[in-house]
């Protein structure tokens, strides 16, 4: 399909197709009822694909029905047939996020002229445009630029620049800030008309902290809303009829805050933007997940009154914004719209997953070789474990999957501190469970059986290509670091049975367990910090009986904490980890350190030391939801009174913890 035309299906073409014996496809009402001077434009969105082309979970090494651009592609074909005119746009986070991404980045590499597999699949589907997400920067700028060079569609990003000017419009941006798609739309009478669709892209400015090692000194970022306010008027001056904002940023607060990460609501208020595609949060919009959000209609799918959509993650949904356009002189304006997100699967009341579509073979074929090579890559054995490594109970008890990460980090940093001014300081290690259910669903857990440990298992233990860091902090900062982590839990009333334990707004990757100290968490106390690290109750203290080698931790004592670049540079907003306490920056990824540790030891014994627990609260119980396969590992949980308590929502299993 030439990019000078929209995917078009006229009424005559539609009727001819049905007369020829093809399946009857109902046109969208906007296409069916458009008047002579009206046209229906359908905007399709993918977002947060994270290299998921095949419907395959490389971490568990098995096919799945809940992910994969090859499955989403089937919906794309149907939706193109339902509308007279359509655009297919990706909203970022496509280069990193599963072992295929790591295989390409670390094993195969990207040379000039190479085609990245996810780009190859997107080319097959004739994407019209894309923007960058924060994870595009994880492998460095050279890898990013070589990867997007193979795209047969424009990739835009307005708020990342190689050189800042006096204003955003004077910046030298890393990629083009926006693109104008000159297209032809078919109106209700079957007549063709020109239309100019402007597409502009944004990424959270927090990438400067999250990928500081790649970006510092090479690029700079600007506030999303301020950048839009500068560029959108320029797009209108350049003759755009319609402006679509590709916002790789979630739907957050309505109040505008400089540098905000989830800026969709104030961004949608920028004059001149007609529709907004969102992502980053791995959620679906419109949906009940956003009920009660200021400036948001979670049923109609509007953000600050503009049509918006968020298409889940890994290809789980296809986002749809349908615009009914009316020709006003020589330009177009939006007169009506609808928004929805169509899934590729459904989950029944019995937890069973039913696929709603089949994979599109041409998409699978475009990455088949890379898929096969990725399978070889993930199946390499690097050592053995004497016990299973699982994360089903990582949020409620000391856990083997987190323990092995902490042990490997400590092992590495202890060697790195030798001969430095920090040698001799106690070394602690901070690690969080990355796969702990939540928005990833009831199967989103680490589950490595005893026996051989392969690369796929290490990738399962540590999802992200973070690099090792060490920070030097005080005992007081260690305590506040743990207070920040303890915000995962709801405040629990003593003596009350079956209270919900977990705050669903708190991501598991911010639940750091610090190994090397012992402590208890007093759930009767309010959280000192909010889900994003904001101060809530400055005098609160959930962390009690904090000791190091059997002695109370001195607030003025100093420690080295092994962690990763994301956390050490301010990711998660943890006390003691704001970028100014870093004393060591290693070139190795935390994942590679785990592999090297297992290779050196040959056989590991990931037994937990129960260094943290909940403080006792007699007569009190809480409810905790985890994966159904957790029941087989109840005997592995140490220092916790836990029992099955029936089914949880959305396919999870529920357990009761007696405090």
From TrEMBL:
Its cofactor is a divalent metal cation. InterPro entries: 5'-Nucleotdase_C, 5'-Nucleotdase_C_sf, 5'-Nucleotdase_CS, 5_nucleotidase/apyrase, Calcineurin-like_PHP, CpdB_N, Metallo-depent_PP-like, TAT_signal. Residues 41-282 form the Calcineurin-like phosphoesterase domain. It is found in: Cell envelope. It catalyses: a ribonucleoside 3'-phosphate + H2O = a ribonucleoside + phosphate; a nucleoside 2',3'-cyclic phosphate + H2O = a nucleoside 3'-phosphate + H(+). The keyword Kinase does not apply. It comes from the Bacteria. It holds the Pfam family Metallophos. Its main location: other. Belongs to the 5'-nucleotidase family. Residues 446-577 form the 5'-Nucleotidase C-terminal domain. Keywords: Hydrolase, Metal-binding, Multifunctional enzyme, Nucleotide-binding, Signal. This is Bifunctional 2',3'-cyclic-nucleotide 2'-phosphodiesterase/3'-nucleotidase.
């Amino acid at each position: 399909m030439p990019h000078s035309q929209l995917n078009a299906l006229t009424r005559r073409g539609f009727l001819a197709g049905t007369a020829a014996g093809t399946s009857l496809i109902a046109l969208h009402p906007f296409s069916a009822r458009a008047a002579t001077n009206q046209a229906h434009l359908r905007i399709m969105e993918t977002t947060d694909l994270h290299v998921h082309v095949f419907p395959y979970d490389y971490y568990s090494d098995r096919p799945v029905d809940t992910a994969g651009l090859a499955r989403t592609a089937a919906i794309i074909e149907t939706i193109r047939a339902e509308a007279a005119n359509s655009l297919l746009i990706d909203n970022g986070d496509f280069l990193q996020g599963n072992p295929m991404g790591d295989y390409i980045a670390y094993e195969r590499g990207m040379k000039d002229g190479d085609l990245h597999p996810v780009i190859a699949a997107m080319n097959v589907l004739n994407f019209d445009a894309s923007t960058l997400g924060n994870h595009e920067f994880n492998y460095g700028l050279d890898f990013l630029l070589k990867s997007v060079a193979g795209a047969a569609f424009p990739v835009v990003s307005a708020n990342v620049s190689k050189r800042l000017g006096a204003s955003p419009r004077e910046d030298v941006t890393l990629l083009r800030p926006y693109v104008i798609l000159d297209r032809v739309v078919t109106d209700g009478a079957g007549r063709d008309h020109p239309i100019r669709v402007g597409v502009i892209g944004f990424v959270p400015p927090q990438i400067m902290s999250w990928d500081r090692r790649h970006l510092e000194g090479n690029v700079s970022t600007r506030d999303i809303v301020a950048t839009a306010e500068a560029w959108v008027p320029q797009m209108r001056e350049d003759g755009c009829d319609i402006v679509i904002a590709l916002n790789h940023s979630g739907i957050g607060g309505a109040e505008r805050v400089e540098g905000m990460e989830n800026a969709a609501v104030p961004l949608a208020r920028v004059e001149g933007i007609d529709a907004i595609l969102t992502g980053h949060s791995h959620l679906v919009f419109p949906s009940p997940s956003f009920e009660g959000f200021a400036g948001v209609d979670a049923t109609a799918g509007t953000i600050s009154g503009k049509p918006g959509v968020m298409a889940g993650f890994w290809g789980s949904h296809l986002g749809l914004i349908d615009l009914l356009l009316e020709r006003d002189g020589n330009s177009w304006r939006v007169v009506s719209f609808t928004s929805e997100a169509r899934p590729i699967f459904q989950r029944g009341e019995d937890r069973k997953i039913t696929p709603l579509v089949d994979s599109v073979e041409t998409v699978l074929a475009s990455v088949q070789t890379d898929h096969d090579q990725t399978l070889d890559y993930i199946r390499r054995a690097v050592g053995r474990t004497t016990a299973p490594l699982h994360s089903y109970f990582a949020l409620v008890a000391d856990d083997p999957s987190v323990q092995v990460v902490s042990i490997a980090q400590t092992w590495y940093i202890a060697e790195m501190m030798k001969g430095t001014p920090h040698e001799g300081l106690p070394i602690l290690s901070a690690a969080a469970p990355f796969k702990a259910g939540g928005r990833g669903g009831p199967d989103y857990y680490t589950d490595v059986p005893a026996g051989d440990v392969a690369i796929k298992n290490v990738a399962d233990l540590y999802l992200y290509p973070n690099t090792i860091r060490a920070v030097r902090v005080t005992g007081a900062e260690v305590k506040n670091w743990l207070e920040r982590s303890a915000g995962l839990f709801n405040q629990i009333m003593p003596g009350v049975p079956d209270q919900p334990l977990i705050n669903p707004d708190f991501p598991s990757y911010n639940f750091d367990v610090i190994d090397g100290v012992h402590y208890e968490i007093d759930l009767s106390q309010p959280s000192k910090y909010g889900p994003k690290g904001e101060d809530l109750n400055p005098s609160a203290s959930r962390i009690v009986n904090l000791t190091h080698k059997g002695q109370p931790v001195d607030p003025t004592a100093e420690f080295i904490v092994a962690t990763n670049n994301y956390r050490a540079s301010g990711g998660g907003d943890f006390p003691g980890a704001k970028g100014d306490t870093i004393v060591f920056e290693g070139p190795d990824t935390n994942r590679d350190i785990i592999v090297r540790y297992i290779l050196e030891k040959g056989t590991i014994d990931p037994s937990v030391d129960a260094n943290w627990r909940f403080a006792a609260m007699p007569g009190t119980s809480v409810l905790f939801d985890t994966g159904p396969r957790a029941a087989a590992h109840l005997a592995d949980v140490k220092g916790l009174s836990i029992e099955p308590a029936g089914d949880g929502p959305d396919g999870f299993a529920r357990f009761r913890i007696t405090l």
